[in-house]
Structures are given as structure tokens and as C-alpha cells.
Amino acid sequence: MKTVVRSRVVLVLALGVLGGSIAVFATVTGVTAAVTPPAEHEFAIDGGQLVETSGERDRTVVADLRTVERVEIAGRGSHLVVTTTPREPIELSLATRERAKEIVTTTGAFADESTPEGAVYTIRPIPESVRSDTAAVAGADPGTVWTQLAPANDSAFTLRERADGVVVERTERRMSDRRALVVVDPVERATRYSVVVDLENETVDAFVRLREGASGSPRGR
């Protein structure tokens, strides 16, 4: 079952008159696929990807929509050109970052361990739709890319038609104004702490500790 942008994005480019010629899907990084063009093109969001669905087989146009802010699909002669705009991270204000750090260091977030003095603190916003425990687990994993917390379904994008094609654009990114994610990497400990703080109540919503070399999943409380 596919999740579809407005039921189905249909882009009519009158490419059927080209007979056996080739339509090329291109992005800012180069050619990604080539097919004999049908009379019209249909696109859908499926599993976090933007796919072209009008042929016998689905073809991936954008592999990971979590990293994308905007997609432009347009006809250029015999070519179908797809251009993507990367999604830039949202930064919290300095005052918010300082407040979040203070909550972590003064509310006993580290429980049985003392607050690390020499540490690198990384403070990130949290999308409203993401649960605190999910954000804390993501923050504890060094391999997590921050865009993985971004939604990539049809409700996260809007469609706008143009004379030569369509624009698929991310809707306004709603970040929580109540919560923040604080990742703490102590300089002299092989441990990472990931804490979600409640900025309004100055409390800890979720806490995960990951020790380097430890087996199993990150430990939370």
C-alpha cells in the first residue's frame, strides 16, 4: 500500500509523441534512471521515497525524502528533470540551548553518576510528532543522522502545480517549543548520554545512556 501525495501526482508532459526515445530522470547529482516515456507520469510517496509509478515497474526518483526540503519535477524537451533542495537543520536559540543544558546539569539527570564536567553538549530541536523516548534513543546512537527524525510521508509535503511541472515541498516544520534533546559526550568517559528535557517544567522527559563497547540496546530510565 502506497502513501500518495494528494492521491496521485499526475504530470502530463505529452512525452508519448516521442515514440521510442528516452526520457531521463536527472537530479542535481546526476542521472538516476532512464525509461521510455509514457503519455503521463505519476508519482507517489512510498516508504519515505518519491517514486515514479506510471511504468510497469516503480522507479525511485528521490531515495530519502527525510533529507529533502523541496523537489521540482519539470519537462525539458524529451527529458523529465528532477531537482532537489536539501533540508537544512533547524537551530535552537542560544538562550534555549543554555537553558536545556542547565536543566541537564542541575536536575540530577545523571542519577547514579556525577555530571561530567569535561563534555561536549549538543542540543537539538525535536519535531512535535516525535515521542521523547524515540528522540532520546536516536540521540544516544552515534550513527543517527538528525534528518531521520523528520517525517517523510504524504502529510509532510504539499503539491503545487506549475506550467511545466510540479513542486513537491515540505510543509512548515513544526518543532516542539516545550522539549529539547541534549546529547552529552564526556571527554574522559566512553559513555554517551541522551536526554530529552521539558523546558517549561525544567524536568527530564527521557534519558538514555550508551556505553561504548556495551552489548545490546542503549539503556534508558
UniProtKB/TrEMBL annotation:
Descriptive protein name: Uncharacterized protein
